[in-house]
Amino acid sequence: MRVLVTRPAHSATRTAQRLREMGHEPVLLPLRQPLHDSAGAATALAATNGPIAVTSAEAVRVVSALGEQLRPHLARPLFAVGEATAKEAQSLGFQSVAASSGNGRDLADLVAAQRADGLLYLAGTPRAETFEAGLHERGIRFSIAECYRMQPVAPSPAEIDAIFAGGPPQAVLFYSRQTADDFFNVAELRSALPEESGIRLLCLSEAVAEAIPVALKKNAVIAPMPDEKSLLSLL
User: Fold this and answer.
1) 32-36 and 52-54: which strand pairing?
2) Counting CB atoms within 10 angstroms of each CB, which of 103, 168, 201, 217 has the fewest?
3) Which residue(s) pair with 123 in the sheet?
4) What pLDDT digit, counting tens, does each position of 169-227 carry?
5) 20 beta partners
6) pTM for this one?
7) Rounded to an integer, what distance in angstroms lies between the CA atom of residue 51 and that of residue 133?
8) How far is CA 110 from CA 21, 37, 59, in A?
């Protein structure tokens, strides 16, 4: 099956390998790229001493550039959304990592269950604010350091033609609401998915699926859990 992957290039490369191992043909079309602010992350870490929270592996990649500056912070408890992000943090050297199995609200539940307070949230922008909302509801004190921005990447008409010239994909993977919005805001991509095409639009969560145009909702499928393993299980 030809599967179109709309993730940023770094993550898409690993997804492509998983798809090949499953017997599929990955086609990569990154629609966002990260712009890191490692200096901002370093300043925030130096100004705090409590637990750390991340809702994306991108935040872990930001602090991976700090080298020796990160070492004093590796013993701080770290809370992560999803096992994949938790594993990235552990591989970087964080010694006490706890992972939630769902979204940002589930992570807030985990933080509350462990009675963590004075949290530093290493965040990206744009983002859903479910984690912050969950912390507010539970009365947990926290600060936010926006340490990366996901910049839109506009594919050229030639890139789009090249992708569809090899035959249309049978499925498109959407990992974020922003990326799905980006996809359907490109006229050439929207027109490449006629209503009768039957191309499956696989979404990581209900929030992501909200970006699918009404005429294509019948082709959308939502992963049972908001993680890549669940998403790929829909293929």
Assistant:
1) unpaired
2) 217
3) 146
4) 999 999 999 999 999 999 999 888 887 888 999 999 998 999 999 999 999 999 998 88
5) none
6) 0.85
7) 18
8) 33, 27, 19
